[in-house]
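note to self: dont lose this again. the chain is below, predicted strucutre after it. 479 aa total, dont forget to put it in the shared folder this time
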Amino acid sequence: MQITSRLEELRALMKEKKIAAYIIPSADPHQSEYVAPRWKSREWISGFTGSAGTVVVTMKKAGLWTDGRYFLQAEAQLEGSTITLFKMGLPETPGYTDWIGGELKKGDVVSFDAAVMSINDVDDLKKTFEPKGIKVASSEDLIDKIWKERPAFPSGKAVQHPVKYAGAGRKEKFERIRGKMAELGVDYHLFASLDDLAWIFNIRGNDVECNPVVMGFGVIGKKTADLFVKEGKFSKKDADAIAKDGVTIHKYEEIYAFIKGLKGKIFIDKARTSQSLLDAVDCKKAEVVNGENVSQIMKGIKNATEIEGMKKAHVIDGVAMVKFLCWLDKNIGKTKITEISASDKLEAFRKEGEGFVGLSFDTISGYGAHGAIIHYSATPETDCELKPEGLYLVDSGAQYLFGTTDITRTVSNGQTHQEHEERFHARTQRSHQDRSREIPAGIHDRRKYRCVCKGSALERRQELSSRHRSRRRCLPQRS
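---
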């Protein structure tokens, strides 16, 4: 099998470099939740295509850890791969750090590609393994050495995001960030997360499917602003306009040399920044200060223009959804409609709307039993016909120039049985009750609440992430 051959090639490299366990996360150099094809290393080495998961390979074993959204999918896709599925969140499932600890001995080395592991995650690995005498060491990207037909770096063009949609210019945002930097007493603020970069610099792109982001890095200084993107990413007109606002545009790869040359205090969000960027800091002349990107709160508080844009996007998207539901009601049972054709029809209605740019995520279109599969994705092999009976679930959304949408509807395609209705309402009520019990009484600030999960701090963050984080980082799409 192709997967087993890939695992053996990886193990040969691990043996050569004296690595006992190699960790392959679902991430890119920007700690993105959704990544461009080039960084789907975990998918390539395992065959598992879900958006979340971590693979660990030792010299004799391999495991995949993923959450409840993907248990069924992972079981099917891992069949015959020799990779064991570990179902995160179940009491009997060890976290992958616990599992590694049980497989390795004192003196062994745990490694990973430092470009795709966050600083926080690496810190947690060191806290877990170093007391046991297991070494934690950054490595080069071993997958790159064996992935012969690896996709290229995203080559899509980037554009400016007009102030008429953003509600504030980039120069204004720079000054707000510098104000917070002054309060923190730092000289520079490094930004590696793509959603922050898009908001701060008012830029949009299509480097990640369904996400309006540009692969890049940003550094804001007391009087400087530097942007690192692939050469030729912007048209000359857009590049000149960005430069006019005091931004120096560099090549994407130059970020490491740039960081190495910085002096003073550098503010870094260790949860959103890769270890390789920290490794580039010259500790003899620079000091790292950790904290959440100051732009996170700023962009979370929408200005009047952004609020109106989101309202407009939802009105336009709602019109498309109503048209779709009307079409479905009139045609079900009269013409052949499948999960895929229904999804395509909904997208066609959305395309008619003002400012439509693309989908905000792959549509989940599931009829009957398929509607019960978390994050189900219809394929030509699974695509089934919708009948004038039973339930149909459609979870979908779109990117507009002025906002992002995400809407889920469960549709009854015909007469429903009373028993089904009663069970549906009972399950819904029970889930709300369970959810209300999950957060202790009196806790109103979610940031003060910590879920008690099995495993290391790293794995607890991953568990919370899979349960609570939004499907998409909502950003108005590119123009």
